[in-house]
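Subject: Sanity check before I submit

Could someone independently write out the structure tokens for this chain? I want to compare against mine line by line before I put it in a report. The sequence has 321 residues.
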Amino acid sequence: MSRAAIKAPAQLPELVRAAFAKARTEGEVQYFPTKVTLLSVGSIPFQLRFSPALANKPQRAGHAPREQPVDPFAYPPRRLFVADLGPSHYLVLNKFAVVPEHFILATREFRPQTGVLDEADLEATLACIRAYRDSREDGDGLFAFFNGGEHSGASQPHRHIQLLPVARMREGLDDGASWSLLATSPHLDKAPFATFSEKISQSTSPRHLHAAYLRLYRQACHAATGTALPAGDEGEGEARISYNLAMTEDTLVVCPRRAEGGEVRRPAEGGGGEVVGRLALNGTVLAGTALVRKQEEWDALREDPGGLVRVLGRIGVPRGE
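---
Independent answer below. Compare away.
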């Protein structure tokens, strides 16, 4: 018997908005406001955000030797819960939010973040995107991203896909600012790192959506390792590479990763300035955004946007490789 289709609540934007407001009032969500500027990465306008308060964010459990890491998605706090989404997934607020109304699609049972995504993961993600597109109040829709593997920016072992309302990602930018989602930009192929993408639609079937993902994953594996996967070897188990995935209402993108980030240096004549920090990047890089926590990093990258370009050129497969 075929399983029932996954459907998101029709009023999902309103549910997320109300849950976030209530959880923030009750202290269940920590929101970290940011400053923002746009830097030029070639022809790409790239958001750089700065949140000094993030330096005080609690470190995730599990750093002490022999200590069992806490799984935040095993028993999500009731006040962060948003909605059930079919028998295998649910929606929960991100407890540490840089973008307001940041929420997460998590598997009910433990599934590894390092595993190849299955059909239900992608179907549930598209259901959320569809719910935002159908809302009259959220015309910008959702940006969904996945961090898979040690070099992707992943921070939790329990499988989850993150969802950001694009309208909230614009906050702080001047009216008429040129920024738009990199994943859907005509300049995506000008990024310093290689990406692989296909067009999808809100009516794409779960089977065809998963097939598109596997095609992109195979291409990313080939680019990252130089070796093609054997036929039929991509559909389950541990992923062969680190990568980020992004999904919007009309685009699916996969970016192979080789490093989580790179050094930020104070600008100096001839290069080689003092190291002032380290820029770490997750799947929001496919939205065209980056985040720093230290004043020295913020100042250095604004003064020398080439520093951001250099880090972006190291995190994945260089475009010309």
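---
OP: Matches mine. For the report I'm noting this point. Residues 60-66 have pLDDT under 50 and may be disordered.
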